[in-house]
Amino acid sequence: MAHSSSGSSLDQRIISLVLIAVVLAFYLPGMVWDSGSLSSNLELLNSPPPVKWRENFATYFVSIVLEAAPYMMIGALVSGLIEVWVPQGLLPLLARRLGWLGIPLMALLAPLFPICECGVLIVARKLLTKGLPLPHVVTYLLAAPVLNPVVLGSTWLAFYRDPLYPLLRAGGGLLVPVAMGLLVSFYPVARALLAQWRGGCSHGCCGHGDHQTITAPAGVAAHSRHVMGHVRDDFLEIAAYFLMGVFLASALKTFVPYDMLDAVGSGPVLGPAVMMFMAFVMSLCSEADAFLAASFVEFDMFSHTAFLVFGPMLDIKLVLMYMLLFQRRFIAIFSVAVTLMVGLYIAMLRLVPEWVWDLVVGSVTGGQL
Amino acid sequence: MRPSQAAWRRFRLTGWLGFFGLILFGGHATTYLAPAQQWIFQVGGALLALVLALDLLWEPEGGGSVAAPPFWSSLLASGVHWVPLLVFLLAGVTSLKLPEGTVPQGGIQTRLLDPSRLAADGAGPGGELSDGSVETDLIRLLGREIPEEPYAAELVGRVMRLTREQIGESFVGWPEDVEPVILYRYAVACCAADATPLGIALLDLGALSFPQDGWVRVRGQVVPFLQDPFRVGLRVESLEETDKPDNPYLFWLSSL
């Protein structure tokens, strides 16, 4: 496929082989045992109920794919529109003029360009090819899925209209990405990015083979073909990694007993750590994760906040999709850094005196929840 | 002759489109997605169909000038795009179930959902029916303050008999003479992946029989349970088996 390097093509073949083999191993033996006939089980609506874990795994897998894949398509569409409509050189010019102020500005602008974490990587790659510096891209990558009006609104609803939770989530969604952007500014770009994503949009870097640079107005039809070509190729390239991530997340959701994690404890250190681990494993959409977080009533506000801030920035799906952009060593360092930054944010929140929380809540709600 | 790059591309897109189409036109989206999410899914499916259609109409950009990889290599790389369809065909239409023997301690919400943050309005849990009973669901039931007087309610969900070992910390103090049976249903915000099991203890079942983990319609009186104002039970008056609802999940956003 013209869009991907030979490395990612090999990855796709490996992922394909592993997924198909495991799926067949999960379901074929059970089907043969339960019904004695393969053909009867391929009648979709009449398939007999399999063992519960198989049913739960399939439910998780299918539902995550159905929920996230459309957002990936939308992210690919946004990426295609950026490719066609954002002039080359504009973004690096703005970044140079703003200097380091551009990093927090990327986080503050994120609510204006909200996108789910499943689609944000595709957009981030496009911003890189348009010359936006890596620290700015990383800031947007981490902030956009959190500082999303829909996400903050659902957080407010999930915690029974308590404004403190969306405020804490937004605070983390602002401070952690900015800190990460500033940190990344000290990291050599050549050691962070895969080779094809360095240096802006040069020949073949967008992977479109005979890449046609549009140097003059070429009409709506040509622009549309260009956009759709990018949508198609971006989606297909990222899909394999996405599916591997969904598979791992579904398996962990099916087999990991979460009550075991509850038993580990919900103290000031373990609580946020456990919740961050659960956010990583569950790989939930940021628009819905607040409802699940709220159901963990044994954990305190700070642990909930750790879940809400960490989840959209780092989970199994995202780590695998990052492999399309970043070098593996950078992903490892990046993951540790994000974890530490969220932990630091929670630690800072714990230092805030209680009367300050009462004041904040009182001023926002007029004294009533 | 090897299939071209464009042909493989379209083969991969067809895998996705087949999966989307089967879910959408088979009416299975409600089994996996919340109502708002179903709309996004339709938009994504339409975009996917448009991409494939335009790819067929227009010549691929520069695709013809790039040599296609070997057949088996391309087939393997394309296989991953058919995995969602493969899973759906092999597993069938599925919904979440609590695995027997692994009911998590505290994993079924039977407490009022964070009683410190009760819903602002003090209205009853649901619309009142003509016979004085209240139409409700587990989200509304568990999300509101329990009235001082018991009230009649009708619920639809799955019934499960638990063992004493499975009761665990969620039901400390469960009376010895009360059989541990719960009615539960998953609540979702976006899709089945974020589902949370909500449950209520079923009391005074007497000789009523029920299918283990089967769908039932239960009528009874909502009462406090375990001398805990933040736990609820349903004193059962009638219980009957029912079909699995078209929407097996409750949706947070339609009930809050």
How do the helices and strands follow one another from N- to C-terminus of chain B? HHHHHEHEHEEEEEH
Distance between the termini of chain A: 55 Å
Dominant shape of chain A: globular
Please write the string of helix (H) and strand (E) elements of chain A: HHHHHHHHHHHHHHHHHH
Largest interface: A-B, 94 and 86 residues
Helix content of chain A: over 70%
Please report the number of helical segments of chain B: 8
Give the mean pLDDT of chain B: 79
The profile of the biggest β sheet of chain B is: 5 strands, mixed, barrel
Strand content of chain B: 15-25%
Helix content of chain B: 25-40%
Q: Determine the strand fraction of chain A and express it as a percent band.
A: under 5%
Order of strands across the main sheet of chain B: 2-3-4-6-5
Radius of gyration of chain B: 24 Å
Distance between the termini of chain B: 60 Å
Structural class of chain B: alpha/beta
List the helices and strands and how they pair.
The complex is a heterodimer of chains A (369) and B (256).
Chain A: H1 6-35, H2 38-41, H3 52-85, H4 90-98, H5 102-109, H6 117-129, H7 134-143, H8 149-158, H9 164-184, H10 189-192, H11 219-255, H12 258-264, H13 270-282, H14 289-295, H15 301-310, H16 316-322, H17 328-351, H18 354-365
Helix pairs in contact in A: 1-11, 3-6, 3-11, 5-7, 5-9, 6-7, 7-9, 8-9, 8-14, 9-15, 9-17, 11-16, 13-15, 15-17
Chain B: H1 5-25, H2 29-32, H3 35-57, H4 71-79, H5 83-91, E1 134-135, H6 138-142, E2 151-161, H7 164-167, E3 181-188, E4 196-203, E5 214-225, E6 228-241, E7 250-251, H8 252-255
Structure description:
The complex is a heterodimer of chains A (369) and B (256). Chain A starts with 5 loop residues before the first helix and ends with a helix. Chain A contains 18 helices and no strands. Chain A has helices at residues 6-35, 38-41, 52-85, 90-98, 102-109, 117-129, 134-143, 149-158, 164-184, 189-192, 219-255, 258-264, 270-282, 289-295, 301-310, 316-322, 328-351, 354-365. Helices cover 70% and strands 0% of the residues of chain A. With 256 residues, chain B is of the alpha/beta class. A five-stranded mixed barrel of chain B has the order 2-3-4-6-5. In chain B, helix 6 (138-142) links the parallel strand 1 and strand 2 (151-161). The model of chain B is unreliable at 101-106 and 117-124 (pLDDT under 50). Classes of the chains: A mainly alpha (369), B alpha/beta (256). The interface between A and B is large, with 94 and 86 residues.
